[in-house]
Amino acid sequence: KEIVDRLRYLEAEIEDLELKEKELDQQKLWLQQSIKNVKEDSTNKSFSYITHEDICDCFNGDTLLAIQAPSGTQLEVPVPHLGQKKYQINLNSHSGPIHVLLINKE
Amino acid sequence: ASLTPKTGLLYKFNGSPSKSLKEINNMIKEGGQK
Amino acid sequence: AQECQNLEIEKQRCIEQIKQKRAQLQELLLQQIAFKNLVQRNQQNEQQHQSPPVLNSTIQLPFLIINTSKRTMIDCSISPDKFEYVFNFDNTFEIHDDTEVLKRMGMSFGLEAGKCSAEDLRTAKSLVPKAFESFVTDMSAGISWVNKGPVFSSTQVDLSFDIA
Fold first, then answer.
1. Closest to A72 (Cβ–Cβ): which among B12, B24, B34?
2. Cβ-based contacts of B26 with chain A (< 8 Å)
3. A81 CA to chain B: closest CA distance, Å?
4. How do the residues of chain A divide into helix, strand and coil, expressed in percent and rounded to 5?
5. What's the rounded Cα separation, in Å, for the pair A13 and C14?
6. What's the ipTM?
7. I need a surface site. Which of A35, B25, C115, C120 has the fewest CB within 10 A?
8. C81 vs A50: CB contact, 8 Å cut-off?
9. What gap in Å lies between CA C93 and CA A78, rounded to an integer?
10. Could you give the angle at which helices C133-140 and C118-126 cross, rounded to 10 degrees?
11. CB pairs under 8 A between B and C
12. A70 to chain C: which residues are within 8 Å by CB?
């Protein structure tokens, strides 16, 4: 009887958790739509930039490359080979040119 | 040549989460440490 | 008893899924706060200076940033149509998206680290719909959503807030 009771209790718990998960999925969709609305608003778009100073202050002293690419552009990074100081990034776009900007405080 | 998960990591603009970039950074960092 | 065990496993799986989804929700909220804060800052700056920033001194969102030591040698090959790039580095690098950069700039008021002043908290709450305000307060106190999720129903959320 104990096991049967435990079984019923677990089933009810799982049902409750599944409902919570569905609720979270709905909220995530909502928030994603909300972010899309905000980012696509034309007024917001014209003010959605950062300055070179902003970025240099975040990465003090480093060489920086900014990449702007169309949606769907693939960025691939091969696993580095052991013993070799070689690292690679491949960028591949199918729908438009990729823009790369070298930002260097000096 | 096409990469597989064993040979490299992939990120898609406007398609992959930030987590993918963190995984790439960890992979590069580990490679550097080795 | 076997079925009990299977259900226990299923329950744990559900709990882990919920934790992951709450963390994703938290991340989305931080993204929205950071973006709106950036837009506000830039609007205020342009009003103060009564002009937009100097041409070519800004980077439009969205973008990725690759950072590496200034001693790194970078070899770059570009296809004529600029659809393909190959970068070779002789040192390690990191890649960050614009949301990460905005966080580093402080555009999310330190909420992700649970360090947010009272004044910044007021501003952050004004950037999200009312339904999420209590969660911004939780974040500012370092309370992660992972173990304590939203309790409101989705029907309470008002999308028209975004356009305003």
1. B12
2. none
3. 8
4. 50, 25, 30
5. 10
6. 0.85
7. C115
8. no
9. 13
10. 150
11. 25
12. none
Confidence of residue A80 (pLDDT cuts 50, 70, 90): confident
User: Phi and psi at residue A59, in whole multiples of 5°?
Assistant: -125, 70
Q: Which residues touch B7 (CB under 8 Å, ≥6 apart)?
A: A78, A79
Chains with 3 or more CB pairs closer than 8 angstroms to C?
A: A, B
Q: What's the full length of chain B, in residues?
A: 34
Q: Which of B14, B21, B31 sits opposite C96 (nearest CB)?
A: B21
Whole-structure pTM value: 0.84
- Name every chain C residue with its beta carbon within 8 A of the beta carbon of B14: 62
Helix (H, G, I), strand (E, B) or coil at C104: helix
Residues C61-95 pLDDT 10s? 999 999 999 899 999 999 999 999 999 999 999 99
- Residues near B9 by Cβ (< 8 Å), separated by ≥ 6? A76, A77, A79, B3, B20, B23, B24, B27
For chain B, say whether C62 makes contact (Cβ under 8 Å): yes
- List residues bridging with A50 in a β-sheet: C59
Q: At what angle do helices C2-49 and A2-40 cross, to 10 degrees?
A: 20
The answer to whether C61 touches C101, Cβ cutoff 8 Å, is no
With CA atoms as reference, report the closest residue to A74 among C66, C96, C85: C85
Chain B neighbours, 3+ Cβ pairs < 8 A: A, C
Instruction: Enter the tokens of residue B15.
Output: 């398609």
CA distance linking residue A60 with residue A65, whole number of Å: 13
What pLDDT, on a 0 to 100 scale, did the predictor assign at position B5? Answer: 60
pLDDT in tens, B7-28: 788 899 988 888 899 999 999 9
